[in-house]
Design a protein that fits this description.
Helix 4 crosses helix 5 and helix 6 packs parallel to helix 8. The longest helix is centred in the middle third of the chain and has 16 residues. It contains nine helices and six strands; from the N terminus they run αααααβββαβααβαβ.
Amino acid sequence: MKTIADTLGVARSNLATKAKVAPCRRGRPPQREAELLAEIKQVIAGQPTYGYRRVHALIRRRRRDEGGAPVNVKRVYRVMKAHGLLLQRHTGDGVERRHDGRVAVDRPDIRWCSDGFEIGCDNGERVRIAFTLDCCDREAISWVATTGGINSGDIRDLMIESVERRFGLVNRLPVPIEWLSDNGSPYTASETRKLAREIGLLPCTTPIESPQSNGMAEAFVKTFKRDYAARQPASRCCQRAAPARRLV
């Protein structure tokens, strides 16, 4: 201590006094979690299947509209984890297939994926839906729906509608776009693949029994069924509807 005091040119008693002073706290003061917890519970009260990212987005949007302070997504995660409000990370039977590919792309209109699913109605009918999803921005570009079965003609209409929504009335895409789907007969039909190549789409199919290869479309179906179809009353299907119709 004496050597340090002599080097600094100060009294040794002065250094001893400062050493006893408690160091000051740096950084932001701890924030109250009760207010944020109440907001989180209010969001998931209506949608208990929402994860922390969607909860954060809704809280951030509400605070922005009301002029409140923004909230960090990591803080939302921490509060939800501390109070047991996070969703289960894994679902299913626990059997996972190895998949080393990457479905997502870095720019829009590089790869589109497509899949189909069905929803039961109050009158016993089932609505079958096929959709197109951009593998970059995850926008549902277009979709078709029918109370019958999805066939090759419906998928060809879906292709044309998707191209028109993104590029307008063109006969062929300015650059080729991959069209990723499973091996269902509407997608692998020769008429479907022929039309795809004529308008600039590059048909790509996933390996057999490998839903992870089209994981973005599978995730969209799961989210739609879990967060919307399962939470809303199924409306009565129109018996006078055409065999296939677009939901616009």
